[in-house]
């Protein structure tokens, strides 16, 4: 048999392999740039998400409307009120005359909280050396209620300290928020949005594009061509890898320059984190596409099995610590959970590799598992 | 004449199911070989083994001089393939499709250019070469898909129901292209459900339940089954299966 036939042997050179690969990647870019839906997901969705999370779903508060019911009207209470307003978090929307007005003020929705100085305030302060101030919050909006009361407690506590009115000796509790002193939610949502966008681009788009080739029958033709199955898959994912990384930088830059996200740690480490997570997401996309036959099934599988858990269980929207134990366990197997830890540690805390090798290791291990399972599924079809 | 496809006792089992049961045949250079059979008779499995996609359970086959189980990559470089779906990228232009498939088969820039010019002048595609494939008529897509299956000058081309869904006139034109390719020395391996097309083949094999039940020229088969059309030959063999079930 003429094994060393000139032309096939010649064509198997490395140079040729690169050329085949180039043809493949070029074709993939044509697909991406010509599909409006893909382009929307690639470029409109990330910006829309950042803006929605940045402005509309903003958890930060300032100018919270409050009511003041001051029956004491002494110097100390006026000073305290001045301090509260001066903090910038609160505005006095209404000044109440008597305790009976409080329910009405809440019902009208004009105020979120009422600060009540009883008429005995001044006397108690001088005689008993301590005086009660009551904070009454509208807990129908629980987050605001908890936040406003804790902010106000802080302000009042500070006021006490400055005026030397520690009500008792011994230990004084003093808490300080570090890394995010102003408690800005941008610190939480930017890493979350990056995690989500990279997942959508990598897992959703790759699984859909591979499924499309199955549907149209072009995959059949490719598998009969001299391109190896591994090259088909790598050629498919390379454009998405490039676009994903590009996208994550756009989001990070938006976070830094528009929303004031800090960048304390190493840029190289940040790039590495994005790369590792993107590869993990791509391998998930490949895994999905080996198991489905149609674009619709691929899309459904990506949305339900990847995006929902990423939104809800990765610590993006709900803190992992507050989840029930079974959900906490699930959150550990979601790649985004580890990626969000990495991004926060690098960007906000400036952590080095020695502190965060573990999430890196977990992501790499996950990728290896996804790829092995994908190869098994591909082989089963042989 | 050179033998291009050699199949000897080729068998594929999926668990206990025998999809292809020890089939043997040979196809010569430039021959048009019709591969017929009802759905599920084992045609596709046999074709997938011959194109290096499936590994045989036992038996041997060589295509274009290469063993399908040990030299699958060399087999792939020397065969072309076209299916009913035509396998063109609808969101790429004709030119981009030509460049892509040329690239996949490792053609040089000059080869690609030459081949592209050949295709354009042969099918008069000058006006539509930069149009998306999506926008051209089905008949043109089919011819283009055939041209692309031949772009790397393969020794054998596998056509899997290539004329499905096309009108009779286009089908006739398509067969002219097949004859032309065969005349140039390309071996044509074709499956079809149209029995009139079976009459156009040089030789025909009919598979039933994983076995080749009939093999010969259309006139030989008609004579031995004492009928006057390939359709009747096929009906006789297919009915034989129906009775068994």
Ordered list of secondary-structure elements with their pairings:
The complex is a heterodimer of chains A (382) and B (245).
Chain A: H1 6-11, H2 14-34, H3 36-56, E1 64-70, H4 75-86, E2 90-96, H5 101-107, E3 113-117, H6 121-127, E4 134-137, H7 142-162, H8 186-216, H9 218-224, H10 229-257, H11 267-291, H12 295-313, H13 325-332, H14 335-347, H15 353-380
Parallel strand pairs in A: 1-2, 1-3
Antiparallel strand pairs in A: 3-4
Helix pairs in contact in A: 2-10, 3-8, 3-10, 8-10, 8-11, 8-12, 8-14, 10-11, 11-14, 11-15, 14-15
Chain B: E1 3-14, E2 17-28, E3 32-37, H1 43-50, E4 58-63, E5 66-67, H2 72-77, E6 79-83, H3 94-104, H4 109-123, H5 138-149, E7 156-160, H6 168-183, E8 187-191, H7 195-200, E9 203-208, E10 211-216, H8 218-225, H9 230-244
Helix pairs in contact in B: 3-4, 5-6, 8-9
């Amino acid at each position: 048999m003429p094994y060393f036939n000139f032309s096939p042997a010649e064509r198997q050179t490395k140079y040729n392999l690169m050329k085949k690969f180039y043809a493949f990647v070029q074709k993939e870019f044509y697909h991406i740039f010509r599909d409006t839906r893909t382009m929307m997901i690639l470029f409109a969705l990330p910006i829309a998400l950042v803006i929605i999370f940045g402005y509309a779903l903003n958890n930060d508060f300032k100018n919270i409307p409050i009511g003041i019911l001051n029956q004491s009207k002494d110097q100390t209470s006026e000073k305290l009120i001045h301090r509260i307003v001066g903090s910038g978090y609160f505005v006095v929307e209404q000044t109440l005359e008597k305790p009976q007005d409080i329910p009405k003020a809440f019902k009208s929705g004009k105020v979120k909280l009422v600060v009540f100085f009883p008429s005995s305030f001044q006397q108690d302060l001088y005689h008993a050396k301590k005086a009660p101030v009551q904070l009454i919050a509208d807990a129908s909006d629980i987050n605001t209620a908890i936040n406003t009361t804790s902010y106000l407690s802080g302000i009042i506590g500070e006021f006490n300290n400055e005026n030397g009115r520690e009500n008792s000796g011994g230990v004084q509790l003093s808490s300080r928020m570090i890394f995010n002193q102003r408690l800005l939610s941008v610190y939480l949502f930017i890493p979350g949005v990056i995690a989500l966008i990279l997942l959508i681009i990598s897992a959703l788009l790759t699984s859909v594009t591979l499924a499309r080739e199955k549907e149209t029958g072009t995959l059949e033709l490719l598998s009969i061509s001299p391109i190896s199955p591994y090259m088909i898959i790598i050629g498919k994912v390379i454009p998405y890898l490039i676009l994903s990384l590009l996208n994550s930088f756009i989001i990070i830059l938006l976070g830094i320059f528009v929303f004031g996200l800090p960048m304390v740690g190493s840029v190289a480490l940040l790039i590495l984190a994005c790369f590792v997570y993107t590869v993990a997401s791509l391998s998930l996309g490949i895994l999905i596409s080996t198991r489905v036959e149609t674009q619709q099934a691929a899309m459904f599988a990506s949305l339900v099995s990847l995006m929902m858990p990423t939104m809800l269980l990765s610590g993006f929207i709900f803190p992992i610590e507050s989840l029930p134990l079974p959900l906490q366990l699930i959150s550990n197997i979601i790649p985004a959970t580890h990626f969000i830890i990495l991004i926060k540690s690098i960007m906000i805390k400036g952590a080095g590799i020695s502190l965060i090798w573990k999430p890196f290791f977990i992501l790499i291990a996950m990728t290896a598992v996804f790829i092995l399972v994908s190869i098994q599924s591909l082989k089963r079809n042989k | 004449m050179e033998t291009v496809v050699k199949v000897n006792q080729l068998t594929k089992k999926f668990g206990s199911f025998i999809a292809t049961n020890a089939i043997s045949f040979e196809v010569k250079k430039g021959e048009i070989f019709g591969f017929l059979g009802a759905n599920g008779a084992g045609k596709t499995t046999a074709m997938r083994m011959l194109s290096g996609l499936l590994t045989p359970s036992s038996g041997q086959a060589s295509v274009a001089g290469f063993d399908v189980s040990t030299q699958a990559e060399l087999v792939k470089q020397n065969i072309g393939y076209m299916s009913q779906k035509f396998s063109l990228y609808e969101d790429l232009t004709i030119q981009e499709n030509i460049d892509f498939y040329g690239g996949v088969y490792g053609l040089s820039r000059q080869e690609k250019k030459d081949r592209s010019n050949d295709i354009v002048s042969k099918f008069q595609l000058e006006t539509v070469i930069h149009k998306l494939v999506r926008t051209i008529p089905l008949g043109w897509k089919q011819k283009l898909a055939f041209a692309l299956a031949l772009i790397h000058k393969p020794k054998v081309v596998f056509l899997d129901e290539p004329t499905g869904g096309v009108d009779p006139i286009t089908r006739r034109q398509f067969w002219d292209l097949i004859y032309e390719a065969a005349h140039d020395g390309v071996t044509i391996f074709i499956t079809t459900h149209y029995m009139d097309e079976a009459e156009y083949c040089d030789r025909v094999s009919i598979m039933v339940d994983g076995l080749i039940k009939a093999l010969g020229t259309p006139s030989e088969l008609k004579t031995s089954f004492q009928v006057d059309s390939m359709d009747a030959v096929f009906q006789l063999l297919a009915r034989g299966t129906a009775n068994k079930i």
